[in-house]
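Async update (no meeting this week)

Hi team, since we skipped the sync, here's where things stand on the single-chain job. The sequence we agreed to prioritize is pasted below, unchanged from the tracker. I ran it this morning and attached the output directly underneath so nobody has to dig for it. Comments welcome in thread, and please keep replies under the output.
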Amino acid sequence: MAGLCKATIVGNLGADPEQRFTQDGRSMAKFRVAVSNNKRDREGNRQEITEWFSITVFGKQAEIVGSLLRKGSRVYVDGRMEVSRWQGNDGQPRTTLEIIASDVISLDGRPRDTDAGAGDDAGFSDERPVPAPGGRGGRSAPPAAEGDDFEDLPF
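Output:
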C-alpha cells in the first residue's frame, strides 16, 4: 500500500513567483510561502514563529500563479511533500523538503477589468481564483461566505 505525505498551508508569498519551463516544455513556477503562528515561551510571553515552505507547481496552475500572485499575496496551498537529496559544493549531503502543489488558491481579491469602474473595492472583487483543471477530482474553491475573515483562523 502506498504511503501519504500531504501538506496544506495558508500563508504569504515571500517574493514574486519564479517561472520556468521543464525540459519537456511544461510550465513550472517556484515560490516560497511564510506561515506565521503565535506561541508562548516558558515565561508566558507571546512569540511569533514563522516557518518558510518551498512550493513548486506545474502546468496551467503555474501560469496562473506567475501572472496573478506577487510578493505578499495570501495563498492556500495543498499538495504532496517531496524530499530532495544531493551533495553540496562542499561535499556535504544536503536535503530539502518542498511541497509539489496540486492546488494553489489566492485568498486576496482578484483584479477586475479596469473598464468596470472605480469603487470602494479599489479594483478587486471577492471572487477567488479557481484551481486549474488537472488537480485531483476537479475540485474548486468554495464560494466565500458573507463575513468570512481568514485572519481569524487559528493557524
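Quick observations from my side:
Helices lie at 60-68.
The chain has a mean pLDDT of 80.
Reply here if anything looks off.
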